[in-house]
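Just wondering, can you check both lines?
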Amino acid sequence: MNKQPKYYQAKLRILNQINTLGLKKGDYLPSHGEFIKDADFSMICLRRALDELERDGVIARQQGKRACLVKEVCELPRRGEVLYLHIYSRVPDKSIEFERMRLLFNHHGINLNYASYGKPGPELLKVSERCLGIILSGWITREWVDFLKLLELPILVLGSNPFPDELAGVDCDWQAATGLAYRQLVERGCRNIALLNSSKNYVPAFRFYDGFKEACQTAGRKFSEEMIAWVDIRRDGNCYQVLADFLDRHPDIDGVVVENGVYNPLMTVLYEYGRADYLKIAAMTQTDFEGFSFSRQVFITFKKSIFQETAEIFLRRLEDGDYSIQHFTIEPNVYNP
């Protein structure tokens, strides 16, 4: 699947090291031995990469000395393009995190471009011709997987991945996050805890389910399907009523673990029903906390932005030429304002 020659991998490793070490004009690069350590390319490839960088005016070399950097990272020539492909079922959604990812790729000499499509088509074939690989997000279907395989490009899924046996991906560890949320509610004295989950056609929802069930059993409490509400935010126009009806059926609930997409509808329902002041909430989110009330809420976040982690992993795999089907998860933690 790797269309790039080995010397190109060597060139990426050099550029990545320049960026990682924060080298400035006049600084010396690491030795050949440091570049070649644990690398999947030969010394011949490394020398060719250095030759090209010297011709590009990025480095200068003198006999008997290590290469010297003569251009800052921001001045490095572009070394190709990566496509951030968002698949949507209704409306395109360009994340505000995309710009941060773009800057990170730029620091490594690579352009990150954005494209959003509802269905695969010939236009995407043209766009992909000049790409080194694809970061994929959104509503991934079998049709998309079969189409993307034809491109023979490295692909890394950001977020929900319904085809883990065929596509490498990066996601938050939602199962561990759910368990952590449950434990936080137990520590806060909750005895009757429910899970307000997303729809059953949303891949992470089953990780929430497994994490909740495991946490119940670990805490020595009885697990019941009745303590789980499945709420389809995308399709169910009366999701607010679904939440209200669930709370009405379970007046003894004193704590809820909340899937991130269900949080805002839940808060609306709680304030309308006057239950916001006594129901304890453990929500999983990567959003901004400004304006939230923390008196009866705890937020489970993640140790790293999924966008940043995906970008870093993609760059590393591009450098190493490793495009095996692997899955990377980001560990949760408790947000303390």
In short: The chain has eleven helices and 14 strands.
